[in-house]
Design brief:
Number of strands: 6
Order of helices and strands: HEEEHHHHEHHEHHHE
Oligomer: single chain
Strand content: 5-15%
Distance between the termini: 15 Å
Structural class: alpha+beta
Radius of gyration: 20 Å
Length: about 280
């Protein structure tokens, strides 16, 4: 098919949605990624910047490696793998849909952290996907909301994605027994996964969690003094020597908004020009 004229990737996806395109959009850049469409709907996004549905299921232990390999051998068509996983009771249909849909939104968020270099359309590639898929408008709206929220709570999301948090000994994270105090299990596990070398992306992959959710939790944990990281970088990418001074908006006792439910799918519309987008090649 002829690539439709589009000013950025979101506009391209909207054009493909209107045409009912089934195929693959390969986006170059850092992190770049692969967007899988079926009948114009976005079924999956695979990017080095965020865990896919497959890596989430495996890293979290929701499906063990042996069961996964057996399922892939029994159903080699990845476009039908979701049906097989549910039919063999490895996971419930509703839970699998939530995991796959969340991975689409998280992948779009990860790809929006830096502008793409270009794109190309290729043939359909089988993949584990959500059914029937996500329309461009709710994906755009949620990506915009996430970027804006992180910017309001901390600063540029792209900058936060590059920090390397480490645990902080103290009341919230004593060294006595190696376990943080007064934190939820999820937050304890997150603190324990920090070591001063891992980025939020590394932590997300290791724990089978979404990148956006990890970044929100790290903001919360930094406020509580449970983790810390090096000072922010300057626009040219060099480390800043200025200390980071929390604003009144990021007071330690201010609760963070919850991530909230996934946006509902609805027809029509395009992406804001700032999301996921630069001109394609």
């Amino acid at each position: 098919m002829k690539t439709p004229s589009a000013r950025n990737v979101p506009a391209l996806l909207q054009a493909l949605h209107q045409e009912g395109f089934s195929g693959t959009v390969r986006v170059s850049g850092t992190p770049g990624g692969t967007i899988h469409l079926r009948d114009g709907l976005i079924g999956a996004i695979e990017t080095p910047g965020a865990p896919t549905a497959t890596s989430t299921l495996l890293a979290s232990g929701r499906i063990d490696d042996d069961a996964w390999l057996a399922a892939c051998a029994a159903e080699p068509d990845l476009d039908r793998l979701d049906l097989h996983l549910v039919a063999t009771d490895l996971i419930g249909g509703a839970e699998l849909e939530v995991v796959c849909t969340a991975a689409v939104f998280d992948g779009a968020f990860a790809m929006a952290l830096s502008p793409p270099a270009g794109w190309e359309l290729t043939e359909r590639e089988p993949t584990l996907r959500t059914r029937p898929g996500v329309e461009p408008r709710p994906l755009a709206e949620e990506t915009t909301r996430r970027m804006a929220l992180l910017s309001r709570l901390w600063g540029p999301a792209g900058e936060l994605a590059r920090v390397r948090p480490e645990p902080v000994p103290g009341p919230e994270n004593p060294e006595a027994d190696g376990r943080p105090a007064r934190l939820t299990r999820r937050h304890r596990e997150l603190v324990e996964s920090t070591n001063g070398r891992r980025t939020p992306r590394d932590i997300a992959f290791a724990g089978g969690r979404g990148l956006y959710a990890v970044m929100l939790d790290l903001i919360r944990l930094e406020r509580r003094g449970a983790v810390r990281w090096e000072n922010r970088t300057t626009p040219d990418g060099r480390p800043s020597t200025a200390p980071r001074v929390p604003s009144a908006q990021t007071a330690a006792d201010e609760p963070l908004p919850r991530a909230g439910p996934l946006p509902r799918r609805r027809p029509g519309g395009g992406f804001p020009s700032g999301d996921l987008g630069a001109r394609g090649g």
